[in-house]
């Protein structure tokens, strides 16, 4: 579900946007000047939140980008199984099996609290609390 629309020129680094239907974080946004007969262009470099894939594209500066709702929730780790972690949500005590960020691989252990993001129905563990 999309909460709001922003113009491509106002997408700053760190902003979460939907790029080709994938939730991504803006890494850079280079803007060109308007030409005599043309409009301003934005060369955007974004990285996918779930697949970590880098995407680069050039779009008109007046084009609207979707900004998805990012729900940040806390959970406690029950077990770590390979590339999935079993967590219990601390608000409604629901048990979930979620993927996690590769940078957290050595930091996760049972009983630890983590923050997971829920974007467009997809969930991923993003950071741990030591």
Characterise this structure.
This protein is mainly β. It folds into 2 domains: 2-68, SH3 type barrels (Roll), CATH 2.30.30; 71-129, OB fold (Dihydrolipoamide Acetyltransferase, E2P). Helices cover 0% and strands 60% of the residues. The protein has no helices and 11 strands. A hairpin with a 2-residue loop joins strand 10 and strand 11.
Q: Estimate what percentage of residues fall within beta strands.
A: over 45%
Mean pLDDT level: 90
Radius of gyration from CA coordinates? 18 Å
CATH-defined architecture of the largest domain: Roll
SS element count, helices: 0
How can the largest sheet be summarized? Answer: 5 strands, antiparallel
Largest sheet strand order: 9-8-7-10-11
Number of domains: 2
Low-confidence stretches: none
The CATH class of the largest domain turns out to be Mainly Beta
What structural class results from the helix and strand content?
mainly beta
Q: How far is the N terminus from the C terminus?
A: 32 Å
Could you give the order of the helices and strands?
EEEEEEEEEEE
Number of strands: 11
Shape: elongated
CATH topology of the largest domain: SH3 type barrels
Q: Helix share of residues?
A: under 10%
